[in-house]
Amino acid sequence: MKVNLAKAAGISLTMLEPTDTASYPEEETKSNFVTAGKILGEKPSWFGPDDSFDMQTELQSIMSQGISSSTDIDESNAKVGTITSAAAPDNDDNTIQVVNGKIQSRQQLMGISVGSAGGWSLEVYPGDFVVHRKFGIGKYEKVVLQPKKKLSAEEKDRQEERRKEIINELMKDGKNLEEIQRVVETFGTDEDNDPISNPMATLLEIAYSDAVVHVPIDRAYRLSRYRAGDAAIKPRLSRVKGEAWAKAKRKVEANTAQMAEDVLALYATRETLNRTPFDPSVEGRVKKFAESFPFEPTPDQKKCFEDVENDM
Questions:
Q1: Is the pLDDT of residue 198 over 50?
Q2: Which of 39, 47, 53, 101 is most buried, by CB atoms within 10 Å?
Q3: 3-state DSSP: the chain helix, strand, coil percent, rounded to 5?
């Protein structure tokens, strides 16, 4: 369903198989489970003495979990609020894996490859760091489905017509006023499964240090992978609230502009410099000096020698 919704928006979305490699090494963590006795220096277990950990129950809980709550910031209006969304998987494959000591389903580990005919593309896996033009450095979590918050005029007309059709169908089926009212109250809620009455949007969930941002799939071009060369240190997540990221961008822009000015001034100065050519009578001494080089010059070295002589 996520792929089909993205395609309807003119965006190519491909779900990628999980990989065994990670962009950054996970920090070492100590287990909170105490099997027997008390180890000196260990923190007490958050399990009581009579509690037990049932792995099978935990797996079933993860596989059946379909509702999650988070502090969400919609990129379109940047308002903070608490939402509850049902993220249904595109397939029924919920194979369980244990990654870095955490129980995760196959669906949670799948990456995405998104792009458009305009030429931009993005390929990320859960846990990869990304950079948003407006919000800064965040961490990609997953793809989610949520009701659209902003509908076009055409979508609003279709929504209104579809809801009228639903009410007329209920009246034809002989439903009473109370039953019809209960159905009307579900319009626009999680119980409204009609794709026209309650159109859904495919969103990329990006975690920041103080909030979670849901980026519409058709605005994924505002995201890029975080690149730091061979650095193995995890970057610090940006804050959505505040001006820290905006100040950092302005500082980089100012430094870049200053660097460009310095380079232009340097080349302009070089163009204005003049000097008296070297005396051609010393050319023989220069060649004699070059012949004293005890090694066979490489092609690049030969070219360098010739360029220096021409400049002289």
A1: yes
A2: 47
A3: 35, 20, 45
Q: Which phi and psi (to 5°) does residue 249 adopt?
A: -65, -45
Cα 133 to Cα 12, 143, 167, distances in angstroms: 21, 19, 44
Under 8 Å between Cβ of 157 and 165: no
The pLDDT assigned to 1 comes to 72
AA letter at 224: S
- What are the strands, taking DSSP E only, across 116-251? 121-124, 129-132, 136-147, 200-207, 212-216, 223-225
Q: How far apart are CA 120 and CA 9, in angstroms?
A: 15
Q: Please, which residues bridge with residue 212 across strands?
A: 72, 207
Give all strands (DSSP E) within 96-247, no chain letters. Answer: 96-99, 102-105, 111-115, 121-124, 129-132, 136-147, 200-207, 212-216, 223-225
Cβ burial of 213 (10 Å; 0-12, 13-18, 19+) is buried
Residue type, 19: T
Bridge partners, 13 (sequence order): 114
Continuous segment of H or E residues that includes residue 301: helix 299-311
Q: In this predicted model, what pLDDT tens digit does every residue of 269-279 receive, in sequence order?
A: 988 888 777 77
